[in-house]
Amino acid sequence: MTAPDKTPAPALRLEGIVKTFPGVRALDDVSFEVRHGEVHALLGENGAGKSTLMKVLAGMYQPDEGRIFIEERPVTMRSPLEAKARGVVLIHQELSLAEEMSVAENIYLGELPRRSFGRVDWKTLYANAQAILDRLKCGFGPKDRVGSLSIANRQMVEIARALTVDAKAVVFDEPTASLTDAEKVVLFDIINDLKARGVGIVYISHRMDEIFTLADRISVLRDGAHRGTLIAAETDEDEVIQLMIGRKLDLSRHEREAANLGAVALRVEGLSCGSLFEDVSFEVSEGEVLGFYGLVGAGRTEIAETLFGLRQPTAGSIRIGDETVSVTSPADAIARGISLVPESRKEQGLVLGMNCRDNITLPQVGDLTSGPFVSDGAEVAIFDQYRDLLKIKTPSWRQAVGNLSGGNQQKIVIGKWLAMRPRILIVDEPTRGIDVGSKSEIHALIRDLAKSGYAVIVISSEMPEVLHVSDRIVAMYHGRITRTFDVDEVTEDNLVAAISGIGQDKVA
Amino acid sequence: MAQRFKTSPLGWLARNPIWGFIVLIFIFFSFANPYFFAIQNFQNILVQTSTIGLIALGMTLVMINGNIDLSVGAVVALAASLCIDIQGWAVFASWGNWAILPGVAAALTAGVALGALNGLIVWKTGVDAFIVTLGAMLGVRGLVFVYTKEQSFFAMNFSFSDFGSSNLGPLPTLAVIFLICAVAVHFLLARTVHGRNSYAVGGNRSAAVNAGIRVGPHMLVNFMIVGFFAALAGVTLSSQMGAATPNLGTNYELWVITSVVLGGTKLNGGSGDIVGTMGGVLAIGILRNGMNLMQVPAFYVLVILGMILIAVLLLDKQLNRKGKEEIRL
Amino acid sequence: MAQTRLESARMPGAEDPAGRRGEKGGGMAGKRLKAVTGVLARQGILVAFALFLIGFALGSDRFLSADNIFSVIRASAIIGVMALGVTVVVIGGNLDLSVGSMLSFSTVLVVDLHDKIGPGPAILVTVLATLCLGAVNGVLVGVARLNSLIVTLGMLSAIQGLTLIYSGGKNVDIANPDGTWFSLFGRGYIADIPTPIVIFGLAAIVLHVAMAYTPFGRRIYATGGNPTAAVFSGIRRSRVVFSTYLISAFTVAIAAVILGSRVMGSQNNVGQGYELQVLAGVILGGTSLLGGSGTIWKTVIGVLILGFIQNGLLLLGFQYYVQWLVTWVVIILAVWLDIAAKRGRLLSPIA
Q: Which of A11, A32, A309, B256 could form a disulfide linkage to A327, CB 3.0–4.6 angstroms apart?
């Protein structure tokens, strides 16, 4: 990865971009450029302003202040369409394809070649599409239905779409989130190919290894401001991370207090669910935090869902306390003292249109009755208790949850499940998409819960988080447990190795 | 699109199960009833299905867009009433058979205009098409009653009703009209830019918007098309009956949506085609015809239809299940 | 429904919590306009109701007489009772288009059985039979998770056929309308108030209390608002949806008893088109067809608005069917205002 030897003109340059939303300055005087033939990585924590900047680049948002230049000519881009016409293309994280249409039609969506009477010129369409697919070395044809393609191939279609115009800059937003390793290699080849053709690439990702493989330069955003641009070859992960979080990465671990351990609360043996995860065994005791670490798709969430009665295991046993149980539904799981704080708060955790109090009491509303009616007093009491405990900021319990910030929403979900006073608490990605302050509060809370006798399982994709809260860590790779660590035997290297399947044979 | 179906006939049938069902009931009725398998009867089936079929063509477009039109039944009644009433106006008395023309023109214009109104409201207000056309279903029916003063109109010009029972070569004229329209809409949907973009609008609206496809005009045009076909169905129906009653077309939206869904078009939009819709329309037509020939009371047909519709949904659900691993929500 | 997809697609993710509305910075005038439209949208249904009442009262001096008001509410009771049940279904996130033909079925059944097995047993059998139909809806939508629009459309057809099969296509009536206590429900009075009004009122209160103040109601709102989150909260979604259809069927049975008693006879298609009027009332009451929001008492108001519009237009000398035209406009305006207030602009941003 050598940086381009002489400095070519920027393909795309942003100058002093400001974008405010009511109450938030999402982008504060951000300047950023990507040169021809360069991969410029864009980094930042959730909420740092990456996606706003990306939307400004792609014409989805108009900046309040600042100017955009393409090849040093000032431009305004009022829509993604206009941005594309000027050579700036965004490859979405959420694919924007019409599944029932053919690959070629999707590539040329909105620009189907026409013949007389508004007919589609299929010959030209397929020929052009085939040419682009050939360039990308895709294993599918222009006539295939997009709905029948794998996720990776669909992404190829998105990329192919970018090649229909004379792209000057292509923005990739977390392109590898759902790709297998082999598919990643293909993607990287394509990116390098684009680069060789002089296209400027903006690459947004959380994954350090990818960034250091691909990027020439790395720009970091924090709190809506540009914190610096580093040359990839001259920096390292620590420096980047420090820039991202504004301090050194805290890989500290809490002091283990083994004396606190109580009885084994949950013991899972040989649990499998089809191909999602296989032969999973672990146990967690009262007073202990068990961390589950692995890549997205390793099967961690599916294990949680199985324990919570949402999936039917195909083999294995679950013991809660001294009793072997089969959990058939979430209601059943709740009755057995299991709580699950799910991965996606908006889709799985909250009824956004409902108020804060009702969301917190939802799982137990049937028990908060006086006579046939819900007891207002009991509900408000529970709400008050957890608002104070979790420091939830809301003007009143009547506020609809949808109006709260991400961090407060997450606290509502956690509060909802703490209020059930479970024996076993499972938290899936407890701090995803919330600010640093709330993050450490939630971490402290998880430790406190363990101290007061809960058995806690924390699923996380963030290494500092698992290290910070866990007593023991289960590493997963492709649906299997590769290794279980005590937290003091973990090093960064052996943990990363365990979740990437390296040395799996030795461990097994 | 057509290229996609160049696979085996079995694969084709798997994507269009309704045609398999048609073959089954066709064989069944052929053996069960001596009058079923006859050219004359096939012509009957085509004529009988043409009314619902015409509307279903337009409805397919609207549903592929992710919308729905519940007002088609009322539009049928309005078009039929306009057509019969206007051709009898004294102004046109000297026009002879040409007097039919302004009637038909007025009916079709009204259909297109009401479709445009529905489409415009859906586009500009952002109110769901279900609510917009539910209102129109009530309102347009009210319009019919107000306009007709709750009276039926009868065609004084016999050549109008003769037209409804005439033949064009070997086929009934109405059947020919229906088939021509089906081919035209198939062409529109499968071959033109408007048709292809309609899939995009229904399948992934934000993708369509980002690609610069103007969502609103596409919906507007498709609503106008379904309005046109509902009006055309009203005209052909009144020509068959030689009359128009204000209650004409009641429940047609139900039959039409049933046929379109049977044909594999999804309510959420983005998928479906005319081949499927023709299958759905014919399946219902053959069922009604066959059961009628076997003297099954019309009541049972209603029950059986309802059950078939639900059975198709169940089957669809069953086929799309991912098996044991699936999360149970 | 496609509309929602667009909305959610445009909804920015967690990273920009403030980008929710895409507001163009408006000055004071804009703010005031927004406040006005806000009030209009939130209480729009009441404002419209008041305007209609004032308009009709100015146009006809009979309109506001006690007699007239009673007769309007009484006439609205049948649709009203059904609308209460359908509101519950809609809050739970589904639709019920089968209530009209279910009403035909139940009315024919109760009237026909009246002379055969007596009023009491007739009512009992009718209620049970109607609940069975509701249970079929409930199993198909709640347990099998089929699309409620299509299922209830299919049931509309099937129940129509069932009614005709039962009656053999003939109309039914009660031989001696004056000699039966069955007349109480449609023609009688309780404490000087017409029985249909009493029943409507009681049903509204019971359902309002159930929806607003019981765990059961809370679960229905949660299920309609976010079915996935409801399941993750341990709510048995299938049961909840199933029970909403039972409630809807039960209200249809009540409506059938009122209707049968008032007419003392029934045609096979007596309920045809009722599903529209019912849904119109529910929508006017501000219940979102997306589920999770709405209240019973606002449905009552929605139904009464329809009733008063109908009555007022008749008193002003319009033809009966003009009310359908007015309903058309009112429904679309009501929903439009609601949506417009939520998105902060009158016209939709669709290109």
A: A309
